[in-house]
Specification:
7-stranded parallel sheet, alpha/beta, 416 residues
Length: 416
Amino acid sequence: MKITFLIHDLYGLGGTNRTTLNLAVALAERHAVTIVSVRRHRTEPEFEIDPRLTVVPLVDARPGSDDRAHPLTAEPSTAFPPAEKRLAQYSRLIDQRVEEYLRECDADVIIGTRPGINVYLSRFGPPTALRIAQEHLTYDSHGARLRGQFARFYRRLDALVTITEADAAMYRARMSLPGLRVLAIPNSVPDIGTSPADGTAKVIAAAGRLARGKRYDLLIDAFGDVAAKYPDWTLRIYGVGPEKAAIQQFIDDRGLNGRAVLMGVVSPIEGEFAKASIVASASDAESFGMTLVEAMRCGVPVVSTDCPLGPAEIITDGVDGRLVPKGDRDALAAALLELVADEPARRRMGEAALASAHRYDPDRAVAAYEALFADLAASRRSRAWKRQTARVRHSVTRTPARTLRSAARRLKHGRG
């Protein structure tokens, strides 16, 4: 089977790139897999590319490239949803290149990886292919305007795959998508062979983009309680982002310099997690929680806020980690202190976390996607009938209202 992924820019860092590559590599064991990068801003991708994958960049956004000087680059996109936050990076040249590629694409399955690209897939994707929209964020992370723009295009696709069941349920409940399969398939996280942590290191680790929503201020504040009671424990924070200076200032202001340390980016992160005894997340929201699973793969228990939507589907509180209320600094500090003080509990939870992480093995994701492909191929006719029936029903319910409004206008102007 030929499978093609459409992605915004494969050449940078980011969770969507990492999870797409994880799935693509797993599928490449049994299928021919191509990743189409709509844009290319670097010569080489930040992540290592498996040689079994074919990478096709469509528009060269590197300084000095011919595409940067192309006349259509200066013209704004007319096909990309206006409310999509990446709109400024999309042009008529990208519209044209994507349309040309998809019109000629001979893939059996084409998978889009963000709302704007899923709209491209709906507009231009060949009807002979199964067309699948992936959602790497959440329903609520998109504003009402964007949801309204992409909903009518999603109805033409075959499936929408979210990464949590809670998000799939949100789409089913709030968006009318007749004929579209809506289901959850969690991200896969490969085992990179890191030896599990032994629970003895006096280190708490955290990782992710240094952004406000990750609430590193809350984590550092909670860690202050740990540092006061256990002066030999440290907090290591891995990542980069716009809040780096503010987070460092927060550390300095609380006298934790040298105790809470910004470590920069390390990839893969598992080797660093294995050097810790606890991994912590204080996020206000997560679409999934890749770092939680990566930590569990290393036999490390996770203390996480019970934020929407991923952590509660990943962590079983008190078994393989701890869940605390979102934004609750005292509860976060108490959970950290509990595990810091109890090495046997850390070991038990770490062993349970390692076992639990196998739910996210790549072969399970492959099996779920292959089952989806087979189901979509077998149900083409019935799903098309559902869409057609919904269109007819919608037309019937709207016609009387339009007729009445038209009649009222004629009467008002003396044409009745």
